[in-house]
């Protein structure tokens, strides 16, 4: 792999850093979501906040991919290998997601004082990783940000009302199960594998759809 991916990653990181207002709004919603539940004394405040984190990070992934939709094919024509473009886009996205996961972990651990703070931290990190995959797949399926944002809201919101026999097939099942106060403690390793497998599956599907859209033979 050439160093071109690093150049593109720096450009992508710079583009994300310029959208301060958008990022502030995206971060503010999960904070308001969690704060409302925590101030009401609800047991599932952490789970509610995690859903907000999932929507936030999924939306960032959506905006990142859709914003670069027309640019990526041009980069391939200019000589970039599709792999370089893909890694260059995903690297700053993953770093941003993990940074936000650390921030929201601190907020929820300090705000709710959970009995198992390490489990909450793991659940939020898993939420961030899975949400990237969800956002990438949505970006590959819809043409504009509005439709994608609404679809992400539907995917995140439906997690709350899914019956117990079906919820394990949903993307955020594992992190929500890890922090569910109304159910007995679950096997952390199995749930981590569930979330990791879901994230890898979504990432592979999104990469295949993305590559199909920009597949062009780069100049030799």
Structure keywords:
single chain, about 220 residues, mainly alpha
Description of the molecule:
The protein has one domain (4-214). The relative contact order is 0.15. With 220 residues, it is mostly helical. Helix 1 (4-18) crosses helix 5 and helix 2 runs antiparallel to helix 3 (45-67). The chain is 79% helix and 0% strand. The longest helix has 31 residues, at 82-112.
Count of separate structural domains: 1
Q: Summarize the amount of helix as a percent range.
A: over 70%
**Largest beta-sheet characterization:** none
Which secondary-structure class do the elements indicate?
mainly alpha
Compile the SSE list and pairings.
Elements: H1 4-18, H2 20-39, H3 45-67, H4 69-77, H5 82-112, H6 117-141, H7 145-161, H8 173-178, H9 188-214
Helix pairs in contact: 1-5, 2-3, 2-5, 3-5, 3-6, 3-7, 5-6, 6-7, 6-9
């Amino acid at each position: 792999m050439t160093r071109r991916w690093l150049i593109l990653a720096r450009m992508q990181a710079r583009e994300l850093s310029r959208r301060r207002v958008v990022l502030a709004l995206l971060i503010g919603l999960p904070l308001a979501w969690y704060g409302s539940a925590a101030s009401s004394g609800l047991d599932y405040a952490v789970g509610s906040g995690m859903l907000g984190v999932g929507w936030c990070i999924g939306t960032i992934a959506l905006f990142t991919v859709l914003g670069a939709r027309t640019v990526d094919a041009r980069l391939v024509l200019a000589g970039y290998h599709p792999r370089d473009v893909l890694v260059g886009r995903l690297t700053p996205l993953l770093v941003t997601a993990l940074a936000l996961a650390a921030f929201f972990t601190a907020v929820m651990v300090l705000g709710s004082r959970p009995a198992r703070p390490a489990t909450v931290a793991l659940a939020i990190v898993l939420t961030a990783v899975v949400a990237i995959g969800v956002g990438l797949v949505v970006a590959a399926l819809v043409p504009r940000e509005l439709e994608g944002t609404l679809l992400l809201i539907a995917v995140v919101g439906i997690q709350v009302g899914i019956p117990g026999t079906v919820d394990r097939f949903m993307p955020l099942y594992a992190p929500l199960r890890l922090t569910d106060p109304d159910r007995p403690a679950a096997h952390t390793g199995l749930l981590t594998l569930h979330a990791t497998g879901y994230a890898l599956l979504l990432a592979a599907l999104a990469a295949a759809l993305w590559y199909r859209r920009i597949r062009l033979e780069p100049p030799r």
